[in-house]
Design goal:
Blueprint: E1 3-5, E2 8-9, E3 16-17, E4 19-25, E5 33-39, E6 45-47, E7 57-58, H1 70-79, H2 83-90, E8 99-103, E9 108-112, E10 115-119, E11 137-142, E12 148-150, H3 181-191, H4 198-205, H5 211-216
Antiparallel strand pairs: 1-2, 2-3, 4-5, 6-7, 8-9, 9-12, 10-11
């Protein structure tokens, strides 16, 4: 954010006063620490290292934005009776963004929970100017707008923290993905047998083969 005077910051509509609130931090065997938190239209101020003349840093975080329906979504997920109801509940879990695997007696599914900001510009990996609105969030992607897979023809689903959507997915989900080594090995083990048992899944849990080592040793 750009300072615009005492207790003011710049916005596309002109200077605006900070929203102020006090937070009390109780310290054992010492007086309470009382902090005045300044908040902008983008979120709480986390640094004014370059103030008073330079920009101040405010953190825009999806889990601080309203409305927050995460608790209601989790309650609905607890009460879901099938994959469809679990998918509807997943769309209501506003944060965090994470992979949710579900199954009922007939189907399996993967849903991505949370809401992902739609930005006018940038991808959120670097601080962006807040005064002119050029990088403002214009909405959210959630529910069916995020990756989801229901009853795949392969008969199995897996995820081991690798990319959950193709590189050309229309919603930006991040740029620093883990490799797919664990997922490749899990897929090999799943596809090695037409049907699995408790014993075969136990053996999969105890598998010690490193796909990375297999790739690089030659």
């Amino acid at each position: 954010e750009t300072p615009a005077g005492p207790n003011l910051y710049a916005t596309p509509d002109g200077p605006r006063p900070f929203m102020l609130r006090e937070e009390r931090i109780r310290v054992r065997d010492a007086p309470d620490e009382v902090m005045t938190v300044r908040e902008t239209r983008h979120g709480p101020v986390v640094s004014d290292l370059l103030a008073p003349s330079g920009p101040i840093l405010a953190a825009a975080m999806a889990n601080l934005m309203s409305p927050d329906t995460a608790a209601a979504g989790l309650m609905a997920l607890n009460r879901a009776a099938n994959v469809d109801e679990a998918g509807a509940a997943a769309a209501r879990i506003t944060s965090p963004v994470q992979n949710l695997m579900v199954a009922d007696r007939e189907r399996i599914a993967l849903f991505v929970t949370g809401r992902v900001p739609i930005r006018r510009a940038g991808d959120g990996s670097h601080p962006a100017p807040g005064a002119d609105g050029s990088h403002d969030w214009t909405g959210w992607a959630s529910g069916a707008q995020l990756p989801h897979y229901v009853a795949p023809a392969s008969g199995h689903l897996l995820n081991a923290n690798e990319r959950v959507a193709p590189p050309d997915f229309p919603v930006f989900l991040g740029g620093n993905w883990n490799d797919d080594l664990r997922a490749r090995r899990a897929r090999e083990r799943l596809e090695a047998m037409p049907q699995h048992s408790l014993d075969s899944f136990a053996a999969m849990q105890m598998d010690r083969l490193s796909v990375f080592a297999r790739d690089v040793l030659p």
